[in-house]
Design brief:
This protein is mainly α and 150 residues long. It has one domain. It is 75% helix and 0% strand. It has 5 helices and no strands. The longest helix has 27 residues. The chain is elongated, with a radius of gyration of 16 Å.
Length: 150
């Protein structure tokens, strides 16, 4: 039970960090990296009705992914908080790198015009967001001190 509570917290913290990074990038004007609106509008077909559903879907998706990150982090012989944070960031980089290709390939099928095009800048933004996610998931796991006995 403790494992589930810690990883749910890690997923929520990681997703909040990722969402913040993507929002900062979007608000900076560098590129449209608004994953919350992209997810919500993919489901509603409407940009205007996308924010709440997008937030719910994004955060609910972050929890099971945190469980996978946590299991992987626990399979490695890591003992220190810093190593868990750094390896979490590396996992986030790999996850973001792979996800960016999927995002670019799928964007042309998005029902809302402003998300139909995902270029290299959008890919880089999502890699940055996933790195933040992984760093934060690793931090929560490391700070909790909880280790799975396999």
């Amino acid at each position: 039970m403790e494992f589930i509570l810690i990883t749910v917290l890690a997923g929520l913290v990681g997703t909040a960090g990722m969402t913040s990074v993507l929002q900062l990038i979007t608000r900076s004007g560098w590129t449209n990296a608004d994953m919350v609106r992209a997810l919500g509008s993919a489901l509603t077909g409407s940009y205007e009705k996308s924010k709440t559903l997008g937030l719910v879907v994004h955060f609910l998706g972050g929890i099971p992914i945190a469980i996978l990150y946590s299991v992987f982090l626990n399979l490695l012989p890591l003992t220190g908080i810093v190593s868990l944070i750094l390896i979490g960031g590396v996992i986030g980089f790999v996850h973001g790198f792979v996800f960016s290709f999927v995002l670019m390939a799928m964007s042309e099928y998005h029902p809302v015009e402003q998300f139909k095009e995902a270029d290299f800048q959008v890919a880089i933004a999502h890699i940055a967001g996933h790195i933040a996610y992984g760093l934060l998931v690793g931090a929560v796991i490391g700070i909790s001190g909880y280790r799975i006995i396999l």
